[in-house]
Amino acid sequence: MSSSSRTVLVVSSGDEVYRRYCLEQVAAAYRIVLVSDARPTWQNELVADWEIADMSDPDAVITAGRILATRHDVAGVLTWDEYQLVPAAHLARILGLPGSDPESMRACRDKGRTRALLHEHGVGSAASIRADSMMEALLAADSIGYPVVLKPASNAGSLGVLRVDSSGQLPDAYAFAFAGTQGIGSESDEVLVEEFLDGPEVSVECVTHRGITAAVAVTRKTVDFEPYFEEIAHSVDARDPLLAEVASVATAAVRALGISTGIQHVELRLTDRGPRIIEVNGRIGGDLIGRLVLLATGLDLPRIAADLACGTAPDLTPTRSQAAAIRLLYPDTAGTIARRSIDASFAQTTEWVEEVRWLRDAGDRAVLPPIGDVDTARIGHILITAPTAGIAQQRIALALDQIAIEVDTHTEPERPTSPAR
Prior knowledge:
This protein is an alpha+beta fold. It has helices spanning 16-27, 58-71, 85-94, 102-109, 111-120, 134-144, 170-180, 242-256, 289-297, 301-309, 344-349, 374-377, 389-400; strands at residues 7-11, 31-36, 49-52, 74-78, 128-131, 148-152, 162-164, 191-195, 201-209, 212-224, 230-237, 262-271, 274-281, 323-329, 335-342, 353-358, 365-366, 380-386, 403-408.
């Protein structure tokens, strides 16, 4: 644990697979106290103290944070958990610590509010109409024009999001999107009907300090499982010329939402009308994107996030210049996993393979969209580095040749209980 005298209060450490690196990188520079939903396990060696709270209850989260603040001289409040953005912002305000206005975090969580603010400030986005019933959704889709996208106004991980190509598909699509509003962490039961933005999807990783935003990296994405929007791959290249093209749109979106400090993961589509905002997330991107940024550029987003939470100007000087990529592994069909493996010699001796991680074992069930979601469909991931983005894609292809996933399709999978991403 860091010998630093400054203490950061982390609200929710998140899932070990996707967020352990965040806690580790903050712990290397700060003393950590944690608000968690359970007694720490893997977090134990990284935290100095903790309080348990019902993470679905914002008041309970804030109370737990205030208790920790009576025991420690807390210098900043930090979260990378999508569902804790608003409570963490309220907690920072109550404790008199740096942080964005809770309303700006609420605007990130409410995609309808995001659209309204982007439109108000002239930032390229998508036409969007709230629908409180299937009939309203039909009228909204007719007004916007097919194809459209239906999504919960407040959720994460593409839960309940799908493209609709015709009015005949809309009743089932509305039911699917509405079901996504009922999930854990959703703060609204509203459904949005939106213009479909056609084109490659990217995200811009941004850093904001005292209202000034810098775009520090661009992540190129691969999305699959149409008409759903499941992200199956990400890559970051420190020299990607696309960053200069999309930076101004991403930073304008951050300003439009009134965000004054922190890390932002801004998702866009590159349309024939230019970059258009999908959403603005007031946190470090998921799927190990922060690790990709570190491997490619040397910029430590969790450490930078902790600096910002304490009111310290971050050092945004890149110390590396290469590419990094992750491929998230899915089976071709749903069923029971019969075998999943990677050539052991390849995984252990290939210097550019940074990590191979299996999330499911033989005998586990894999449930694909629309029945399943990101937590029930993924088998594992492989993370690699390369001198350039082109070589990174070649290396990912080579790695996939060493991986075998076999599924028994004779069993009809039910949606299993899975840990949150």
